[in-house]
Specification:
The structure is a homodimer. Chain A is an alpha+beta fold. Chain A has eleven helices and 22 strands. In chain A, helix 5 (89-103) crosses helix 6. The interface between A and B is large, with 73 and 73 residues.
Chain lengths: 413, 413
Amino acid sequence: MRKDLDHLMHTHNVDALWIMGPTTHNPAMRYFCGEASLTGADLFKRRNQPPTLFYRSMERDEAAKTGLITRCYDDYPFRTYYEQANGDISQATALRFRKMLEDLHLERSRIALYGKIEFGPQFDLVKQLQTLMPEAEFLGFADDPILLMAMMTKDEDEIERIRQMGRVTTQVVAQTADFLSQHRAKGGILIKSDGEPLTIGEVKRRINLWLAEQGAENSEGTIFAIGRDAAIPHSTGNPHDVLRLGETIVFDIFPHEAGGGYFYDFTRTWCLGFATDEALGLYEQVLSVYRQVVQELAPNRFFKFYHDRTCELFEAMGHPTVRTNPTTQEGYVHSLGHGLGLHVHEYPVSGAYANESRDLLAPGTVFTIEPGLYYPQKGIGVRLEDTYAVLPDGQITCLAEYPPDLVIPVRAS
Amino acid sequence: MRKDLDHLMHTHNVDALWIMGPTTHNPAMRYFCGEASLTGADLFKRRNQPPTLFYRSMERDEAAKTGLITRCYDDYPFRTYYEQANGDISQATALRFRKMLEDLHLERSRIALYGKIEFGPQFDLVKQLQTLMPEAEFLGFADDPILLMAMMTKDEDEIERIRQMGRVTTQVVAQTADFLSQHRAKGGILIKSDGEPLTIGEVKRRINLWLAEQGAENSEGTIFAIGRDAAIPHSTGNPHDVLRLGETIVFDIFPHEAGGGYFYDFTRTWCLGFATDEALGLYEQVLSVYRQVVQELAPNRFFKFYHDRTCELFEAMGHPTVRTNPTTQEGYVHSLGHGLGLHVHEYPVSGAYANESRDLLAPGTVFTIEPGLYYPQKGIGVRLEDTYAVLPDGQITCLAEYPPDLVIPVRAS
């Protein structure tokens, strides 16, 4: 949780976090700045001190909305450093930041870097600063033990926001099911009132509209994939595809609060009109594994335990899994789930590279459970996914209930 | 243009561009990958060679949609490097990338880094690689002379896409004006049919809906700000504000193609019902400067020439400008405009730090013209903005016409 930050910084011997970039669609910045909208900023969180936010003059009112200690970049007039650097913009920028860092007493500090931002200009700045400030140490984490670790456990307000996105998500899923059901089938495909085939592109456009109506965004896209596409977990679906009856549709929707806030993550597998015996068989296996694993969930256990358990259950049914073959493209081809919050993928991790001391289902964690089976050559993919939270008392709860049904009825022609 | 890339790489002695991150909401990646949707990838563009895209197995069909030469990360099994690194994920990742770079013959190359991505993990990777590959040089640009330079001039297809976003934008602006006009005024504010005041939050929600209907996104937000907020250029507007008659509203809308494609950028200033003499006076000054500058635009001229000209015209009217005081918060407080494309801000630059050899209105450039006047203490802000392109024959054209009118009529109560 947020309150763990200073302790985590201490444990990993980090003096300051430097978070860069806009406040929108930038999880680390959003964590500190909330819903204020700044197009470019720098935030410094020193150990045992409140954060300081640097802002552009034109964005002073947005900066004030954060409630943080703020400073205007204009206090460090760019013109001065530009002249000092003889018109070299890279050097001028570094000289300006050196002064800002010096004023924060960070010239001999270990500074961890964060922010979703264009890599090139920032890399140049850090390289130049390292030369100008040889006693400072700038570092990034492949496997962040500080900020992502704090983010991993959510407080009640954060869980409530994710639950609210769950309500939005399941409402849009219900609207999508109703929309499909209202169409007639003809020649094995869904058709519109004008007799033309309905396409995946049109379905996705409706989904975006319904999300926008509720103030949500799906900036990372939505998977609505049919047939062979459904059998490849990250194929997003071809907008020109028509909706063929009886084929599996994987509908994986992961919207977030407008501006880049908390996510929800949810998947259903649907067949329009009817399911083949083969699809129904795989669906029933996935559903039974889903139910078995959910029933066994207990707080504070290693998340990977349940991933391994899922592999074991699927292997007992005769399917290849990522445990028997890490690069398999058939059977169970991904990990059981992932944490989520301001990122769609956060800690805890459940797959092969999970960390035993970190990736526990601790109170405050929010994570997905998403077993699936994929057979591209048969054109069948099945995945079921819901988002769960471990509450402060250790109770584990699904954040938005929705029926797992496979077949969506459609109107006969 | 795209075809200039090899030449620009040669001029700046760069052997390869390494573009990192997802293909959505990541302009550099989108430039090469088009509309394919990959959540994580690495693209290497070597000089005088076609690009190579690395993809995850689950995203193989999306990777294939790019039409590029592709390679699966699984050809470099992570498990091997993980064992070699004794379970250190940071080190394992670097060992894997070293092998990928070696197979591309980049171990002694100058490699420029690009991509909108979480900074920390990538910074760690590049730092580790630099140690493993001491003869390679990794660099970023504060002021990119290669990829952003190529992107600065658009081909006809790119200009047509921006023009199409202009059509979407102006249609949504017209819908917004109609929506406001349909409301009644009562007690100096707009009210809904239920007698409650209309709020900026509700207007913005409609705007998002109309954009979604046309398959556009405004992931960087929309400015719809009234009164004092309108007088601070980047204040986005308070969702709880009511719509007071006679006050200036700055409506700045910059949507893009879904998934993070080409932008449009557009601003109008509106007063509901009537304008005060003071607001009308400032509006007429901004409109006359806008018209004067647009009339003088000529191809291949230095963009900053028109910024200086705008300052000159506003100064002659008695306003402070960023030329007389770079940190002024009153009068004309920003630069005349900016290039746009896959980023909302690109080259050419028009302000104080423009580059005489680069920031020209060359054929293929697309840029905004957006003079404005701001008086926060009076609660008045005025800005007018359209997007222009220089066509191959040197003709300069507005990409979406829309009336500049100030007053939006509303229904009497």
